Amino acid sequence: MLPDLTDRTVLVTGANAGLGYWATEQLAARGARVLLACRSASRAAAAVAAVRERVPGARLDVLSLDVADLASVAACAAAVDVGLDAVLCNAGVTETRGRQTTADGFELMMGGNALGHVALVAALLDRLRPGGRVVTVGSIAHRWSPLDPADLQAERGFRSFRQYGRSKTAAMAFAFELDRRFRAVGRDALALAAHPGFALDSSTPQRSGVNEVAVPLRVVAQPARAFAQGKDAGAWPLVHACVGDGVRGGEYWGPGGWQEMTGRPAPSRARAHVRDEVAGARFVAAAERATGVRLGL
Ligand SMILES: NC(=O)c1ccc[n+]([C@@H]2O[C@H](COP(=O)([O-])OP(=O)(O)OC[C@H]3O[C@@H](n4cnc5c(N)ncnc54)[C@H](OP(=O)(O)O)[C@@H]3O)[C@@H](O)[C@H]2O)c1
C-alpha cells in the first residue's frame, strides 16, 4: 500500500505508454503531482486524459522530452520549475532493427536508455528535494550483459538484444554509482534501480488512447500469464522505489514472484558486475565525456 502522496512531485520519463503510463496513473491515484516527460505532445495528452478519467483532478503536467536528444534533455530539465521528490528514468526502447543512432550520434539504446537519462538527472540534481530519489529502470537482461567499456556504442559489432541488455546494465550502474556519490558527499538523496519483471501490453488493462490491444491478441496471450504480467503490475516495483516506505539508496526492486518475472514489489538481487565500483565510476566518466554534462558530485 502506497502512502498518501499529496505533498510529492514525481517526474516520469516516457509517461505516455507502458510502464511509465501505469506509474503515472498509480502515483496520481495516491495524490502525487506527476510531470509527464514525453516526446509526443499528442500521446502525452492522451495519457493525461486517460489518467483523469480515473483520477478526476489528477495533478499532471506535460514536459517535452526526447531522451535520445541532448538538446531536448537540457530544455526539459530547464523547464522543471518545481522541487522533485523522485525522478523515474523509465523511457526506453527495447530493440532496434540494426544499429541506429540518436540525434547526437550515440547508439540509440545506450544513448536514450542510459546516456540521455544521465544527462537529465545531472541537470535536475539541484531540483531534487531533501530525501529525493532517482530511480532508473533496469531489467533482468542486465544479468547476462556486462558492459564493454571499450565499445559502449556497439561500434565494433551490434546485436540488438545484447546492446539492450548493456543499456540496462549502464542505467543500473549509474544509479548505484550516483547513490555512492550521494553518500560520499553527505547529500540527503537516494538513487536506486527497479525492474518490472516481464510485462506485456497484451496482459495489461485497456486505457483508451494509450494501449489498445486487439481482443484476439489478448486471448492468444493468455498462457503468457503464467510467466508474465501486465504493465500495470510491472509498474508496481518502479512506483514503490520512487515513493514506497522502507526503501534505501543502492537497492534494486523488482517483482517478488517466480523468477522475478511477476508479483508484488520485493528487493531484488543485482549481479556483481552492475554494482562494481570501478565499472560504475568508469561508466559515469564515459557518460560525462560523451554528453558534456557533469554530475558535479
Ligand atoms: N516491459 C518489460 O517487460 C520490461 C522489462 C524490463 C525493463 N523494461 C524497461 O521499462 C521501460 C519501459 O518499457 P515499456 O515496456 O513500458 O515500453 P513501452 O510500452 O514501449 O513504452 C516506452 C515509453 O518510452 C518512451 N520513449 C521511448 N523512447 C523515447 C525517447 N527517445 N524519448 C522519450 N520517450 C521515449 C515511449 O514513448 P513513445 O510512445 O513516444 O514511443 C513510451 O512512452 C524501458 O526502459 C524498458 O527497458 C521493460
Describe it for me?
There is one protein chain. The chain has 9 helices and 10 strands. By secondary structure, the protein is an alpha/beta fold. The protein has a single domain (9-290), classed as 3-Layer(aba) Sandwich (Rossmann fold), CATH 3.40.50.720. The strands form 2 sheets. An 8-stranded mixed sheet has the order 3-2-1-4-5-6-9-10, with helices on both faces. It starts with 8 loop residues before the first strand and ends in a 6-residue tail after the last helix. The model has no long low-confidence stretch (mean pLDDT 96). Bound molecules: NADP nicotinamide-adenine-dinucleotide phosphate (NAP). Residues 14, 16-20, 38-40, 43, 65-68, 90-94, 112-113, 137, 139, 168, 195-196, 198-199, 231, 234 line the site of NADP nicotinamide-adenine-dinucleotide phosphate.
Shape: globular
Q: Helical percent range?
A: 25-40%
Terminus-to-terminus distance:
34 Å
Structural class: alpha/beta
What ligands are attached or bound here? Answer: NADP nicotinamide-adenine-dinucleotide phosphate
Number of domain modules? 1
User: What is Rg?
Assistant: 18 Å
How many helices? 9
- CATH fold group: Rossmann fold
Give a quick precis of the structure.
The chain has 297 residues and is α/β, with parallel strands linked by helices. It has nine helices and ten strands.
Layout of helices and strands, plus pairs?
Elements: E1 9-13, H1 18-29, E2 33-38, H2 41-54, E3 60-64, H3 70-79, E4 84-89, H4 108-124, E5 128-137, H5 160-185, E6 189-194, E7 199-200, H6 215-220, E8 229-230, H7 231-243, E9 252-255, E10 265-267, H8 272-275, H9 277-291
Parallel strand pairs: 1-2, 1-4, 2-3, 4-5, 5-6, 6-9, 7-8
Antiparallel strand pairs: 9-10
Helix pairs in contact: 1-7, 3-4, 4-5, 4-9, 5-9
The chain binds NADP nicotinamide-adenine-dinucleotide phosphate.
NADP nicotinamide-adenine-dinucleotide phosphate binds next to helix 1, helix 4 and helix 7.
